[in-house]
Design a protein that fits this description.
Elements: E1 3-9, H1 14-18, H2 31-44, E2 51-54, H3 58-71, E3 76-77, H4 94-100, H5 102-109, H6 123-140, E4 145-150, H7 152-163, E5 180-186, E6 189-197
Parallel strand pairs: 1-4, 2-3, 2-4
Antiparallel strand pairs: 1-5, 5-6
Amino acid sequence: MTTRLCIVRHGETTWNAEHRVQGQLDVPLNAIGHAQAEAASKVLALEKFDVIYSSDLSRARQTAQPTASLLSMEILREKDLRERHYGIFERLTYAEVKVRFPEDYARFEAREPEYAFRTGESLKDFSARSIAVVSRIASAHEGQNILVFTHGGILDKLYRYITGLSISAERDFGIPNAGLNRIELTPAGWQIRSWADIAHLDGALDDI
């Protein structure tokens, strides 16, 4: 029995465009993000899904809403689908972080698994949360088609888990705003069917 998931990163926000750290702060979509959500909905509404999940943060929910409306389905909110908690980095641009917290930025850039932004979430803990929530959703809907709206960090950890890429390795794959990422859970394990599909968009920013 195969369980199919289409996992969508939220649309663009003003903070994405500013290279500002959002983390778990509730930043809404900008005009481009809303347009991306509408574009994604026109593709996704042609498919059959048994359930729709979304992070409880507004940028993910706003991306999910046009599709949910076209399919006449409710959106199930899941807090564990939230982005990583970036602690002292949140609200600042990456350029500002590099100046204000140079040692912390160096540890972040080195992708230290235990580094937790003083008041945030470590890479190791975030990876465990990301894999656990997607696995839990898949187990709850075995054999079904699942649509999930979430954040770049969750997608990053999921890709690494499925492909065996270390959480500390440099990222060599895209995670664009409103990109469609299709994975399956089969008797042989997790498999990626397609990744970072933005054929429905005119373009999109990649995750920082």
